[in-house]
Design goal:
Elements (H helix, E strand, L loop, with lengths): L9 H11 L33 H9 L7 H8 L3 H15 L2 E5 L2 E5 L3
Antiparallel strand pairs: 1-2
Helix pairs in contact: 2-3, 3-4
């Protein structure tokens, strides 16, 4: 007897694996059941929560009577302090806010 090793090509291996798999029967076709403990909420019964945007969070901070420091903005919004300064600058330009800076506290001043 000779010791011959038969190597299959990748294509042959894939087609052999496909032939071993049986197609799903007609009764098993459809969506799979949800995993235990992970059920979807009933349709039409869940009230959608209002989306809180970064701009809305920033405006709420800056409209407080005491205003907000960059550290407070950064901590509240989970961003770096230099990013908080940039965000204040960008939103001020986009929304036309009058922002004052005194004693390291930013405030939105209402326009008359």
């Amino acid at each position: 007897m000779s010791n011959v090793i038969h190597l299959k090509s990748r294509k042959a291996k894939k087609s052999a694996a496909k032939s071993r798999l049986s197609p799903r029967s007609a009764k098993n076709v459809g969506p799979k059941p949800a995993a235990k403990g992970h059920t979807a909420p009933p349709k039409g019964k869940v009230a959608k929560r209002a989306r809180v945007t970064r701009a809305a969070q920033l405006e709420a901070l800056l409209r407080r009577p005491t205003g907000a420091t960059t550290a407070e903005v950064a901590r509240t919004m989970s961003i770096a302090e230099h990013s908080a300064r940039a965000l204040i600058s960008v939103e001020r330009r986009k929304r036309g806010w009058q922002v004052t800076l005194d004693d390291r506290r930013y405030r939105i001043v209402d326009q008359l």
